[in-house]
Amino acid sequence: MQITSLQLGVDIATSLAILASAITFLINQRLKNRETKKRQLDESVRAVTVNEFQAALGTLSTLYIKQIVVQASPLHNAASRGAVKLASMLESRPEYLDTLKQSLQNTSDNISDFFHTICAYNYQITPLLDSIEDGHKQIAEFREGLAQLMQSYNHLNASHMALLTEVCALTDYCQDNPIESANSQILRKMSLSIQMDPDYRQWVDFFIPAGKEDLYWHHVGQHDFGEHTDLLSQVNTNLLQHFYKEPDLMKAQVLSIAYHATSEARQHCKDFLIKMSALNYWLIRKGGSGETLEDVIERYRSPAVFAAKTEIR
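RE: above sequence
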């Protein structure tokens, strides 16, 4: 059979088309396989990341419930009834003071552990926040939450724990040494240590004449009362009179203030957990729901979910 040049050209063109199609198929298949492997790797990495994040969340949740909430319960139950009732209880059960002091100390220590545990997870949490929409904003809010928690802890530890220690020491001294026979220098030194400390202002203000609080603390800051030395003496006398007349109320007042500070710090811990829980949902959810991360956080803070404002746990 005679093959014409036209037939040969058609056969070659057909063969080239088939070859081109085969090559294109192989290239597309290779790209598809490569994309599939990349997607599988991304999903694998994401799964590992989510698992690590959930492990961190579990650790912090356990620390919050079993350490912070449980350890704060004795102080919460006693101080939530008010300073007057707490003073009455301390008068009838003086040994219970040690339980409340230990409750406050343990709570403070555990809040510190909670804070440092979050810091240890910082290098896991920050990249996750950075990977979502408005990541820079989420990182800023994360750091702000950490700062608030640290400030609450420092206020609790530096102010209320220290004040309670000094108040109990002065109460014991007044109980053992009637004012008529007490060493005036020791008494004045102990009382001035309390009333001249700006960290104790929230409580010391109770013993400053109304309207003169700012003037008093101005002179404390200047380390000189000048022509207002009578104000210093007035506050000192007022303070010591209450220590001798109502020692249990003095301790109860400080415990009540410490209780409110503990509650505030505990609230910061819970708020942090709620935000982490919302982020956990954000990472594992499938498909878009139309909710932003901020929407999820607010929903989780509501009474229907974690009841941020009304429930402790």
